[in-house]
Amino acid sequence: MQHIKNYHCAQLETPQGTVFVEGPVLPETIEKLDFHEDLTAFRPPEQQKKALIGIAKLEEGRIIIARNNNTIIGYVTYLYPDPLERWAEDKIENVLELGAIEVIPSYRGAGVAKKLLEVSFMADEMEDYLIFTTEYYWHWDLKGTGLNVWDYRRMMENLMKTAGFEYCATDDPEITSHPANCLMVRIGKRVDNDTITRFDRLRFKYRYMY
User: Fold this and answer.
1) What's the rounded Cα separation, in Å, for the pair 116 and 152?
2) Burial 194-208, CB ≥16 within 10 A → b, else e
3) Would you indicate the residue range of the signal peptide (predicted)?
């Protein structure tokens, strides 16, 4: 399929000033912007910036950023699933993974993460995709937020629901390894039944082995 990337932008007023949320952005845009040193949830900031540039270069890759002036303070990524994970075992061309969403601590609670999702789905082409996200408690900043795993899980679930994601059961061992982990899925309005059926087979891999 052809991966269309229509750019959208929105402003958000926060206690720290005006934040611009925009994307999908080009790799050159990420390259020329500063990357905040507190974006450390997944890897060191310089490595994460390089990872985002790499995703933006992919045909299907989509990066939505939140920036204050020339500094990226948050982002969300969309791309094909990791080839080493079960979600890539059936290469469904219109299934993308929301791979990461991160906002620096000083902007949390200001609605930045919600705005990142809102701008993501301003693009009509997103209705052609089934998009999933896997939430693992070991990626959550429990110490920084002071939340326990259940409160954090509830917060993430409520955040994702604002963009149309719904909780879905699965027998994936990584997700079932802890009851706070979860799979959430957003099915675009133009996604056909064949895509849904094939994804369900990935969700319940062991059920279909017999």
Assistant:
1) 18
2) ebeeebeebbebeee
3) none
Q: How far apart are CA 181 and CA 175, in angstroms?
A: 5
**Which tokens sit at 69?**
């002036």
**Nearest-angstrom CA–CA distance, 190 and 126:** 9
Coil/strand/helix, residue 196: helix
Using one digit for the tens of pLDDT, what is the confidence trace for 39-61?
998 899 999 999 999 999 999 99
CATH for the 8-203 domain, from 3.90.1150.10, 3.40.630.30, 3.40.50.720, 3.40.50.10190:
3.40.630.30
List the chain domain ranges: 8-203
* Amino acid 71: pLDDT: 98
Q: List all residues 6 or more positions away from 157 whose beta carbon is below 8 Å from its beta carbon.
A: 135, 167, 182, 184
The predicted model scores a pTM of 0.94
d(CA 147, CA 162): 20
**Out of 38-42, 73-77, 203-207, least confident range:** 203-207
Rg of the chain over CA atoms, in angstroms? 17
DSSP structure string for 117-171: HHHHTTSGGGGG-EEEEEE-GGGS-HHHH---HHHHHHHHHHHHHTTT-EEE---
